[in-house]
Structures are given as C-alpha cells and as structure tokens.
Amino acid sequence: MALELYADGYEIDGALPDMLYRRVLEFLGLEDCFDVEVSVVDEETIRELNARTRDTDRVTDVLSFPNLEIRFPFCRSDYAQDVNPDSGNLMLGDIVLCAERARQQAEEYGHSYRRECGYLVLHGLLHLFGYDHEDEQDRARMRAAEEAVLKAADLPRE
Fold first, then answer.
1. Is the peptide bond before 73 cis (omega within 30 degrees of 0)?
2. 1 has a pLDDT exceeding 60
3. Whose CA is closest to 37, among 2, 86, 83, 11?
C-alpha cells in the first residue's frame, strides 16, 4: 500500500487519506509510486514536533516532512536512491495531523470533522509534492490545487 495511516484510536475515516492521495496523483498527472505515512496525534505530540523541527513551540493542525524534493517534469529514475526496498516505491514523506485541532477548526469553519481532516491531509500531501505558501504567488497556486482536488474528491465546504 502506498499510503499508511496511523490513527492510534483517533476517529478518522480510514479511506479518506488514500482517496485524497489518489486524487492528488491524478491532479499532478503522476503514477502511484510513492510511500506516504499519515499519523493522527494529540496536541502535545504535535506541539513537541513543531518545537523540535520548526522552532515553533505551539500546537498546529498539520505538519509535513518531505523526504524528497519533487521536480517536474517528474522522472522516477531521478530518485533511484530513494526507493523503499520493502515496497519498491519512492519514500515521499510523512504527514502528522492533530485530531483535536481538526475538530476545533471544523467547528470554527462550519463544516464536518471529516472534511477538515481531508483538507489537512490534502494540504500536507501538497507540501510533500513541493507546494508551499510562503508568498502570495505560492499561496494562490496551492489554494487553486487544494480547491481542484477538494472538488474532485467531493469534499466541499458544507
């Protein structure tokens, strides 16, 4: 399996991350040749990760840890050293989602917890594929990609 979900008892639609992963691949025109891990954690765990990896000692909703720097046009042979020997896939990276923050944001934005988890997984996936939001142009590009994939995944704001 290309996408592994570790939810440690947290409520999350187990099919959602994989479905979004496949929609992102379709959007980007890529084959399914990546390994991605998605972990659902509590506020303390994500705060500690954020402090350790980004020097930001606060709770956040989602963190992405890319293993590759994807270049387009994509050519799998450019990443021969990044193949997972167990799966034969490229090790794209990890996404860590905070369940409590997702629930809070779902309520704040007026949509379901499922939709918020989906959005956060999608946001993390796009970061793994090189999208960012550091400046206005990057933000617009990422937002357009998010909207296109959310529409294809039938995950509109409710």
1. yes
2. no
3. 2
* Contact yes or no for 128/2 (Cβ under 8 A): no
Backbone dihedral region of 89: left (phi > 0), alpha (psi from -120 to 50 degrees) or beta?
beta
- Which tens digit of pLDDT belongs to each residue from 105-134? 999 999 999 999 999 999 999 999 999 999
* pTM of the predicted model as reported, rounded to 2 decimal places: 0.93
**In angstroms, rounded to a whole number, what is the distance separating the alpha carbons of residues 100 and 49?**
15
Q: How wide is the angle at C-alpha 93 spanned by C-alphas 89 and 96, nearest 5°?
A: 135
Q: Strand, coil or helix: what is 148?
A: helix
Backbone angle region of 110, left / alpha / beta, with phi > 0 → left and psi within -120 to 50 → alpha: left
List the structure tokens of 68: 């590759």
Residue with tokens 């890529």: 30
Cα dihedral value 8, 48, 142, 72, nearest 10 = -90
| Strand ranges, E, within 67-154 | 90-98
Q: Are 36 and 125 in contact (CB under 8 A)?
A: yes
What is the C-alpha to C-alpha distance for residues 135 and 119, in angstroms, rounded to an integer? 20
